[in-house]
Amino acid sequence: MNNSTKATLAALCVVACLNGCGRPAPTGLVLTSYKNADQPQIYTINLDSCVYYQDAGGDYHFAGRDVHISDQPDGGEIQQLLHVHVFWKPIPGKTFDNASSIDAIYRYVLITQHGVAVYRGTGYVYPRKRRFSDRIRLEVDSGRLSLVGKSTGQADIIEAARLRGLLEAKSDRAAALDIRREIDILTGQVQQ
Questions:
Q1: 33, 56, 85, 135: which sits with the fewest CB atoms below 10 Å from its CB?
Q2: CA distance readout (Å), 179 to 6, 16, 20, 111, 176
Q3: What's this model's pTM, rounded to 2 decimal places?
């Protein structure tokens, strides 16, 4: 295992210990990597900030960010970005939901001192707006991610992965658009 792979693996392990999204209830995403199908690796993604906005067509865009310093001596700063574009708006008590359906597109970016890795996928999510609040709780179910590009030097330790969990996001159009634009720029900079 080279130093880049070790540092990236250490970065993901550190991510498992972080809390975020400013929420009282336990939330976070579990990313299960199937790079080695016999021994799947499980990582936890907890975002420091988690925001959303609704576009003119009624679709929801959830975006989150986590930035921290690795506890490994040569780990440096680790940054994670997530964008979830939700196409479906359920009506409680009226809309049939099926977790095998696809209603969302995911983009996940991992940035370390060794480079950038961009993952993309689809899956099923169920947003629930909190009463008397601008917050939405997003249940992420049966999401699939795969590597779409990485910069030279960045280790690929995730490859294909499953994504599940909960996020709680507050309404903040400007912050969500900033994260989304940053993901767009980083996606354009990596080899695909």
A1: 56
A2: 27, 21, 16, 13, 5
A3: 0.78
